[in-house]
Specification:
single chain, alpha/beta, TIM Barrel, 2 domains, eight-stranded mixed β-sheet, three-stranded antiparallel β-sheet, 11 helices, binds iron/sulfur cluster
């Protein structure tokens, strides 16, 4: 892949397959400041929608990438995400519609769901094949504790937005619930979540926990066993997001993984330094690191405000 500023990957994603990421938001602009965020602390907490990156420049990159059949053939899905909340970009609707006119590859949006009460945001996402909003808590205190939203954004407003969007949206709606031990996994939390999820009636409910080094060390993971119990409690649509099946990983993925291991065997590095040395987008590096951490091939160590990775020996 050539040098692209707004695109990263394709990288294997646990839930989407080989995903080309489209980064719509600079680090770290978001409507939340989640304690588990792996991108780091939100430096600009906002609900303001605007063209954080120029829409036309993103279109040009997408066109350049997709016109090469070799690129297009190794992508299962085009995914809007970002180093923050992608629906804050006012051009997201235009970009989704642009892609739908350009390719048959499905389009997904991974969003924190916090702007779905806005009819314009709802409209913007209607053309996507899959929308994956977060819903980490349905109890006000837990919502504030885990997502630390921008002032004025209440859990009721967010949930009403999700429900309203569900009514209009014909595509696949997969709700992700990220649980942190002792923060949003209490009995009251789970009962409230179950009720709201039944009302929203998404196509899937994906349970996740803290798998990458979080923004706050207070964000601790649940065990696989506990996640399994919660899945059973939430019902048929719930699933624990499974580890990516390594046997399906393409060759280029394994080569990049080797490069990362080689780099880290020389000295510990931050994800940002690795991204510069390897010429990979930060998100791409982070996705590889997630797999390597899960497989216990690398370790994450906090030094001051930075997280360093090193090879586990
Ligand atoms: S919504 Fe996503 S990007 Fe924003 S703080 Fe939470 S995890 Fe990070």
């Amino acid at each position: 892949m050539g040098t692209f500023k707004y695109l990263y990957g394709p990288v294997p994603s646990r839930r989407l397959g080989a995903s080309l990421g489209i980064d719509l938001i600079p680090k770290k602009i978001c409507s939340y400041d989640c304690i588990y965020c792996q991108i780091g602390k939100t430096t600009h907490l906002t609900l303001k929608r605007k063209a954080y990156y120029p829409t036309e420049a993103i279109k040009r990159e997408l066109e350049a990438f997709l016109k090469d059949p070799e690129n297009a053939n190794r992508v299962d899905i085009l995914t809007f995400s970002g180093s923050g909340e992608p629906t804050l970009h006012e051009g997201i609707g235009e970009l989704i519609r642009f892609l739908k006119g350009l390719t048959t590859i499905p389009v997904a949006v991974i969003t924190n769901g916090s702007l779905l009460w806005d009819p314009q945001v709802q409209e913007d996402l209607l053309a996507a094949d899959r929308v994956v909003p977060s819903l980490d808590a349905a109890v006000a205190e837990s919502f504030r504790a885990v997502n630390r939203p921008v002032e004025g954004l209440t859990v009721t407003r967010m949930i009403d937005g999700l429900k309203a969007f569900r009514k209009r949206y014909q595509g696949q709606l997969w709700v992700e619930v990220l649980l942190c031990e002792g923060v949003n996994d209490g009995e009251r939390d789970l009962a409230a979540l179950k009720k709201v999820l039944n009302e929203i009636d998404p196509d899937r409910v994906q349970l996740n926990t803290v798998v990458r080094p979080p923004s706050e060390s207070s964000a601790r993971p649940l065990s696989q066993a506990r996640l399994g119990e919660i899945r059973d409690y939430l019902g048929d649509k719930a699933e624990v997001i499974a580890s990516f099946d390594r046997s399906t990983l393409p060759v280029y993925h394994q080569a990049t993984e080797e490069e990362i291991i080689n780099l880290l065997s020389r000295r510990p590095e931050t994800a940002e330094k690795m991204s510069q040395s390897l010429g990979l987008h930060l998100h791409e590096v982070e996705k590889y690191l997630t797999e390597l951490l899960r497989e216990e091939k690398v370790l994450a160590l906090r030094r001051g405000n930075e997280i360093y990775y090193e090879v586990k020996r």
